[in-house]
Amino acid sequence: MNALEIALEMARNASATLMPWRESLDYYQDWESYGKGVYKTHVEQLAPFGFDINGKDVLEVGPGSSLWTAYLCRKRGAKSSVAIDTRRFLIKGNSPEDALSLVTYLSPCNVEDTELPPNSFDLIYSHAVLEHVREPKLVLSEIRRLLRPGGYISHQIDTRNHLDFSRPNEHLAIPEWVWKLMTSNRSSYTNRYTVPMWVELFRASGFDLLTVRETESLQHPDRPDGGLLIQARKPAPESG
Ligand SMILES: C[S@@+](CC[C@H](N)C(=O)[O-])C[C@H]1O[C@@H](n2cnc3c(N)ncnc32)[C@H](O)[C@@H]1O
């Protein structure tokens, strides 16, 4: 990025700091299809590893403007479906009408300090969220605490440059303090963990990895579906 582009992003960050309420996450037309796609990625694609949604307690981190996926979890057999978000980004019309009667939605609520009891969930998933957290290590340790032994996680992490998806890696060259001045109060803020850094962190946080797959970064440059899909389990204690 050149100096002018960087200065422009700093100005946008300053205005986001002054007017945070102007941000909206309404980037799709068809939220039902999107929610079904996210459900397929995080629930159906765990079936070969033995996961069955029936009777399970499920947590979605960062649903953004739509509860479609969390709703589908309930509709397809989950005992409970909880969705937490730092900010109440829900937009009327982006979820089924009865979503809030089937999904427990908690906001403001940060995944790093939910105050939910330990060993509460059988599945914890997120889509295009973990790249935005400020403290990845703390977040994974909290996710592990909330997960039951033997429970599953599934996370899609968009590691691309959120300021310009067509230049997916350019943000990595910018010094941290400059990056913060450009993005700290915007949804384009990302922690800039790369795919290998995430894989190492999941391992070091005590998860047994099941799927580690890089997702396409250029096929849909305007959508949050580039980066990494990682699925794993919290080890269950040995029986007997
Ligand atoms: C890019 S949006 C993705 C929204 C949705 N999952 C989707 O695919 O459209 C990231 C979401 O994660 C939420 N988020 C970011 N950091 C979070 C945190 N520490 N705890 C809970 N939610 C968080 C944001 O508020 C936002 O709703």
Report on this model:
- The chain is α/β, with parallel strands linked by helices and 240 residues long.
- The chain has one domain (3-18, 29-207): Rossmann fold (3-Layer(aba) Sandwich).
- The protein is 29% helix and 19% strand.
- It has helices at residues 3-18, 31-42, 68-75, 99-102, 136-146, 176-183, 195-204, and strands spanning 57-61, 80-84, 104-106, 121-127, 147-157, 208-215, 227-233.
- Helix 4 links the parallel strand 2 and strand 3 (104-106).
- Helix 1 packs across helix 6.
- The radius of gyration is 18 Å and the shape is globular.
- The N and C termini lie far apart (58 Å).
- The mean pLDDT is 91.
- Residues 25, 61-64, 84-87, 89, 110-112, 127-129, 132-133, 187, 224 line the site of S-adenosylmethionine.
What are the defining features of this structure?
single chain, 240 residues, alpha/beta, Rossmann fold, seven-stranded mixed β-sheet, 7 helices, 7 strands, binds S-adenosylmethionine
